[in-house]
Write a structure and sequence with these properties.
By secondary structure, this protein is an alpha/beta fold. The protein is 39% helix and 20% strand. It has eleven helices and nine strands. The chain has a six-stranded parallel β-sheet, sandwiched between helices. A three-stranded antiparallel β-sheet has the order 7-8-9. Strand 5, helix 8 (153-165) and strand 6 (171-175) form a beta-alpha-beta unit. The longest helix has 16 residues, at 126-141. The termini are far apart. The structure holds pantoate.
Amino acid sequence: MKVFSDKTKIKNYVNGKKDKGFAFGFVPTMGALHKGHLSLVEEALSNNDYVVVSVFVNPTQFDNEEDLEKYPRALDRDVALLETISSAILVYAPSVEDIYDGNTKAEHFSFDGLEFEMEGKFRQGHFDGVGTIVKRLFEIVTPNNAYFGEKDFQQLAIVKKLVQKHEIPVDVIGCKIHREDSGLAMSSRNERLKPEYKKAAPFIYKTLKAAKVKFGTKSAKEVTDWVERQFAKHDLLKLEYFTIADVETLKPVKRKSKTKNYRAFVAAYADDIRLIDNIALN
Ligand code: PAF
């Protein structure tokens, strides 16, 4: 398997193949790959000749030094795993220097307000960091199609906005959330859950599913109050936010409309590990 760490080398390699008519899919990751990532890779493989998987823990999207330090890193394992899937996969695992050229700072972006909701309220500067890295990766990898999971639904909306506003020639494709048998949304962070928290965490999706049923007959406020009460009673999980939002604007719903699509979003702490999840409501 080809593993690149130099942006010029991978860019030249991809462009050489694209000149011959080959299509490239791209799955950006921060590594510690799990089945959720692999499902994105499979989707990318089924629609492209080659797939680039980037493995880079991007410092500028972390608002918490400890979270960045503790983020799992497992490049050798990731490469070995990808090798078992297909020889059409290339890995790009750059250093911080290769991406940031000695200036590890995020650029500032406007995403038409999407960046101020939910994650944006609790993770200062997070979406500037995401915008910076995704834009740079798109410029280096120059893929035809890029695949993002719906677990980070707000990130997916922001990446679509980034591509539209900066006229980047890539199709951004959202892929369904991959769950463990317990219902817990797959995440690299799950690796760090202690056993009692791992056992408790499926409560998040269970509550989202119950909220979806309630949303059929109750207002967004009633459902939100109910969810907050369920988490308040829980010994191990601490709710950061629960929001029912319009999927287009990501703004919280005030009054339900039959013509709009809504999703419920949650962020909760299991010990010191922050978990997010979401569900389509209609
Ligand atoms: O979702 C992630 O893993 C990251 O936010 C991404 C898109 C790879 C950018 O660092």
